[in-house]
Design brief:
This protein is of the alpha/beta class. 34% of the residues lie in helices and 27% in strands. The protein folds into two domains: 169 residues, UDP-N-acetylmuramoyl-L-alanine:D-glutamate ligase (3-Layer(aba) Sandwich); 120 residues, Ribokinase (UDP-N-acetylmuramoyl-L-alanine:D-glutamate ligase). Strands 5-4-1-8-9-10-12-13-14-15 form a ten-stranded mixed beta sheet, sandwiched between helices. Helix 6 crosses helix 7 and helix 8 runs antiparallel to helix 9. The protein binds adenosine-5'-triphosphate and magnesium ion (MG).
Length: 315
């Protein structure tokens, strides 16, 4: 079983509109609602691959109840932590040319008791999980060391933990030695506080995060593929993609593929790349199913192209 944690989930409402007109009344031609959040995406991708997953979510109010119903409809078990504040609703405006304009709400502020109940719910499920994936930013009320505390407690239960977050909460968690961290290029550059121009720069930055405590670093480099820097060595993975439809959630799909394939080594990196490549060819944050994957299009090598310039360098 793979447990996912999404500290600040959302109810995502997408409206299709002909065009954005500031100050006008926009009439939507279609609308949809999806359970949102990075850990939720990981659970959806893991469930699509036929594995059992439980999503731990603080949920409150009517939007929180809807998130739980939508996930149940998708066959995803939810470990619900009731909170007093209402779960946030995020709005996306989709125009016919593919332009997506998003409004993300801050979400409720969690109380100290709710923070503790989230940690204890995770701890109570940790024993039956092969991996715990903790994803996304923290809601108000959870301090920057909340993920560090989570890693410490999960390790006491003997479970491995993968962390996909950024900024101070990532840096604070490193000292508790998370088994895997999954920054994208921008998050990796931010974590080491310098620009990344080449694949080699990304390798050096990932090694630095290992030096600060990360067991392994799965760094996703957008169109430039992915790096796995671990005790077993450094691998580079890449897949050619015919047409990119949406890169939203491609990192979440990658982490799901990596963990579902064991979370270690060249084979898991190949699965991560296959999931990322499949995700970008699907609309919105739709997670790939096994039928969408093209493992034969993936190359994984220890011959890392260190001098290769990044398509989107990190300033
Ligand atoms: N333009 C692209 N062309 C080909 N593959 C891509 C492209 N963008 C993303 N990918 C694949 O998806 C993986 C994850 O993408 P990216 O590094 O953008 O993740 P991310 O920023 O963490 O995404 P998110 O947080 O929205 O899930 C990449 O490492 C790559 O394998
Ligand atoms: Mg990401």
């Amino acid at each position: 079983m793979l447990l996912t944690v999404t500290p600040n989930p959302s109810l995502d409402r997408t409206y299709e509109i002909p065009a954005i007109e500031r100050g006008g009344v926009l009439r939507a031609t279609a609308e949809r609602m999806d359970p949102g959040g990075k850990g939720v995406n990981v659970s959806r991708a893991v469930a699509a691959a036929g594995h059992r997953t439980v999503a731990v979510l603080p949920l409150g109010g009517a939007p929180g109840a809807l998130v739980a119903d939508l996930l149940a409809g998708q066959g995803i078990e939810v470990a619900r932590v009731p909170v007093a504040g209402a779960t946030r609703s995020n709005i996306a405006l989709a125009e016919p040319d593919g332009t997506l304009t998003k409004i993300n709400a801050p979400g409720p502020e969690l109380t100290a008791a709710e923070s503790e109940s989230l940690l204890s719910t995770i701890r109570s499920h940790a024993g039956s999980a092969a991996w715990i994936a903790c994803c996304g930013s923290l809601p108000r009320g959870l301090g920057a060391d909340w993920y560090a505390e989570l890693v410490a407690r999960v390790h006491r239960a003997g479970t491995r933990i993968a962390l996909d977050t950024s900024g101070p909460s990532l840096l604070a968690a490193l000292r508790e030695r998370p088994d895997v961290v999954k920054p994208n290029a921008e998050e990796l550059g931010q974590a080491v506080g310098r620009p990344l121009a080449t694949v080699g720069d990304a390798v050096k930055a990932a090694e630095e995060l290992r030096g600060q405590g990360a067991g392994a670093v799965l760094a996703s480099l957008g169109a430039d593929g992915q790096l796995l820097v671990s005790a077993a060595g450094t691998y580079f993975g890449f897949a050619r993609v015919a047409a990119v439809r949406s890169n939203v959630g491609a990192g979440d799909a990658s982490l799901a593929g990596f963990l579902a394939a064991g979370g270690d080594g060249a084979g898991a990196l190949a699965a991560a790349v296959a999931h990322g490549a499949a995700a970008v060819q699907l609309p919105g944050s739709v997670m790939p199913s096994p039928a969408d994957l093209e493992p034969s299009a993936v190359t994984v090598t220890t011959d890392v192209p260190l001098d290769r310039p990044l398509t989107e360098p990190v300033p």
